[in-house]
Write a structure and sequence with these properties.
Strand 2 (about 30) and strand 3 (about 35-40) form a beta hairpin. The longest helix is centred in the last third of the chain and has 26 residues, at about 65-90. This protein is mainly alpha-helical and about 110 residues long. The chain has five helices and three strands; from the N terminus they run E-H-H-E-E-H-H-H. Strands 1-3-2 form a three-stranded antiparallel sheet. The N and C termini lie far apart (about 50 Å).
């Protein structure tokens, strides 16, 4: 877990006022209390992503929540797809072939 000062010291681009705004907007959710927030490794990675989007890609502060929401949705879809692929792979050969045939549709050539 990392405190605010360590987070700021670890990222030269990060501005305190932006971090405070991101926490208020719940783009980053620290643990602990409001007086002594602590940031997990996952929150630290998210702060780095926000810094890249805001400072390097110049995404407007107003657009940032939308972009982050879309990235979160994409990440969730990828996670679900990996889980689905794992579930399909765990099936026997006949079931896997039936799933593949269904995905290809009735007009697909084998």
């Amino acid at each position: 877990m990392t405190g605010i000062e360590e987070l700021l010291a670890g990222n030269a681009l990060l501005r305190r006022e932006d971090l405070v705004a991101w926490v208020e907007e719940q783009l980053v959710v620290p643990e602990g209390t409001a007086e002594a927030p602590r940031f997990s490794e996952e929150a630290w990675v998210r702060v780095r992503l926000l810094c890249t989007l805001r400072y390097e890609l110049d995404i407007d502060a107003e657009a940032l929540p939308v972009v982050v929401s879309l990235l979160d949705q994409l990440h969730d879809a990828q996670r679900r797809l990996r889980a689905l692929a794992g579930a399909v792979a765990a099936q026997d050969q006949a079931v896997r072939e039936a799933i593949i045939a269904t995905l290809r549709g009735p007009d697909a050539v084998a």
